[in-house]
User: Which sequence fits this backbone?
């Protein structure tokens, strides 16, 4: 498969802009049952987005990736049938009960909520009918390569955006704390909260920090290696992000991918033109990490869970009403700047005026010479992105000719799709053939407001016949509408259904982390040989000794007190190997357990 760039679509407008800025495919929340409950869309809006995307031969995937209760299965299937009818290319799902339902022949993608990390499980999912696997975020390039060599199923991997600290689909902390299940699309994000860190003997080690809040993912330096390892779809996180983020990040990765694929076919049509310079640091980010792609590294945003933006320099001088920032970044009135106080708390202020490197804040911050400054709201960049910041056009050849009873226009686009359109008109000789031919070419080339751009326009009549500009325009409009309709008609998803009901699951016993909350999911696993199966915590609200989070991220490593002697921080905490660690927040205590053999950390209730 030709590699695709997959972008988030919060809604119809965001999806259109993602296409305009280079997305080859989109993922969008269905009317219900998506892992972002705040990002749902009507079937009508999804249908409109499908039409827009298919014009460019881009695809649309609908997220139906929550766990479903028995009472919801019938509604979910009805919704899926409607999504199939309006041309959605694939469903992203988590609940295996859907494979026991009477679904239309639509492609199924196994959501990252399935925690697709083990080769044996990925092979199983391929065998039971999934056309694509969305790999766990923790997957290294070496693991991607192994999976790619062993499987023929399409592999999708995240390349940018927020990181869940827990294995996806294996986080029960929000459900435990307030009944808001991440597996049901309602995560309250306890990983972004502040905690105090204690030893199990009660000694306070660190107060009011964010030990479970990771920086944002940025794999931009590893795209080529990921593609060589077998990844076919590069996914940008962000269905809850703002439009500036979607435009900026999509355009940035579009340019990178185009440079890697130069001279090779693309998975969608058209070429993009941007009216700004994409820069990942100028929209929402918590700082960046490439996570586990190559090697383990420090990756947490311990001081804050908020966006810090782009570093702009250090404070060189502090006056009564202004401060001087020593840096090369062009600041402007309306910017939002931030810094960390002496206590390590993120503080911010707005810029009222700038004169050279002298900044006049709306309220003087308590900064000192040497304080590092970031810009987390870039006023000029946001203004650029609020307007028309990008467009995408499909190349088309146009031939004007005389036909029986009037005139015709033949179009052929860059994908070889052809249409003819005709208009009735009298054959009236022109007074100036050269001028008439020039008018024809000029009017036919006016394709602004359409997805097309004329790459060649020819007039077979050589200007012999007079035609008013209004008639030429009607002919052009008719031909363009016909071509767009034909492109959408031809680009329909192929029927898909392939299920091996005899394929054994790679384990005979599954605990509550299998996330089974309906009778059809239970049936699915039993059909495939699972003998013992626990019900999901969304049904039982019983956690026992199971971890509320399981993560490849390790707080001991992050703080320089790794039990295997790794991490190497010069300011490591004074923690003995025998000391257990506890997190405390708002009266709740959590015990940390470290599986050093497998380099994993668990967060448990206490």
Assistant:
């Amino acid at each position: 498969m030709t590699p695709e760039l997959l972008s988030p679509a919060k809604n119809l407008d965001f999806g259109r802009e993602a296409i305009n800025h280079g997305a080859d495919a989109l993922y969008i929340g269905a009317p219900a049952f998506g892992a972002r409950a705040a990002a749902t869309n009507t079937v009508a809006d999804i249908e409109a987005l499908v039409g827009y995307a298919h014009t460019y031969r881009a695809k649309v995937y609908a997220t139906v990736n929550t766990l479903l209760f028995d009472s919801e299965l019938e509604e979910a299937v009805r919704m899926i049938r409607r999504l199939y009818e309006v041309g959605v290319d694939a469903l992203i799902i988590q609940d295996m009960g859907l494979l026991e339902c009477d679904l239309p022949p639509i492609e199924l993608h196994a959501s990252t909520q399935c925690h697709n990390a083990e080769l044996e499980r990925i092979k199983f999912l391929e065998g039971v009918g999934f056309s694509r696997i969305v790999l766990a975020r923790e997957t290294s390039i070496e693991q991607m390569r192994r999976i790619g060599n062993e499987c023929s199923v399409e592999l999708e991997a995240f390349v940018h955006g927020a990181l869940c600290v827990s294995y996806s689909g294996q986080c029960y902390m929000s459900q435990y704390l307030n009944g808001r299940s991440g597996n049901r699309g309602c995560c309250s994000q306890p990983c972004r909260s502040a905690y105090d860190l204690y030893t199990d003997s009660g000694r306070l080690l660190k107060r009011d920090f964010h030990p479970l809040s990771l920086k944002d993912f940025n794999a931009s330096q590893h795209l080529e290696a990921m593609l060589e390892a077998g990844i076919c779809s590069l996914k940008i996180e962000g269905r809850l992000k703002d439009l500036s983020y979607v435009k900026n990040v999509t355009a940035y990765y579009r340019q990178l991918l185009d440079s890697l694929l130069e001279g090779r076919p693309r998975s969608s049509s058209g070429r993009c033109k941007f009216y700004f310079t994409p820069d990942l640091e100028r929209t929402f980010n918590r700082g960046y990490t490439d996570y586990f792609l190559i090697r383990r590294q420090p990756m947490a945003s311990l001081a804050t869970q908020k966006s810090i933006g782009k570093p702009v320099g250090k404070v060189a001088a502090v006056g009564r009403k202004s401060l001087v920032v020593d840096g090369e970044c062009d600041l402007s009135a309306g910017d939002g700047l931030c810094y960390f106080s002496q206590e390590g708390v993120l503080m911010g202020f707005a810029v009222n005026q700038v004169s050279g490197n002298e900044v006049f804040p709306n309220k003087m911050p308590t900064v000192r010479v040497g304080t590092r400054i970031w810009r987390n709201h870039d006023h000029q960049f946001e203004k650029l992105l609020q307007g028309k910041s990008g467009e995408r056009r499909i190349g088309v050849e146009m031939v004007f000719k005389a036909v029986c009873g009037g005139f015709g226009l033949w179009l052929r686009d860059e994908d070889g799709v052809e249409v003819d359109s005709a208009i009735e008109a009298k054959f009236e000789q022109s007074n100036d053939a050269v001028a008439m031919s020039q008018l024809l070419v000029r009017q036919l080339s006016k394709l602004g407001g359409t997805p097309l751009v004329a790459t060649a326009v020819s007039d077979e009549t050589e200007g012999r016949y007079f035609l008013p500009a209004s008639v030429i325009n009607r002919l052009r409009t008719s031909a363009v509408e016909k071509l767009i309709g034909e492109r959408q008609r031809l680009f329909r998803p192929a029927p898909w259904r392939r299920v091996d009901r005899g394929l054994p699951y790679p384990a005979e016993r599954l605990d509550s982390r299998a996330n089974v909350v309906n009778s059809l999911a239970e049936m699915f696993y039993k059909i495939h040989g699972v003998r013992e199966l626990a019900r999901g915590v969304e049904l039982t609200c019983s956690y026992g000794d199971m971890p509320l989070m399981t993560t490849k991220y390790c707080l001991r490593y992050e703080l320089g007190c790794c039990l295997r002697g790794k991490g190497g921080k010069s300011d490591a905490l004074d923690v003995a190997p025998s000391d257990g660690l506890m997190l405390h927040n708002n009266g709740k205590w959590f015990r940390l357990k470290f599986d050093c053999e497998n380099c994993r950390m668990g967060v448990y209730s206490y």
Observations:
- The CA atoms of residues 515 and 536 lie 5 Å apart.
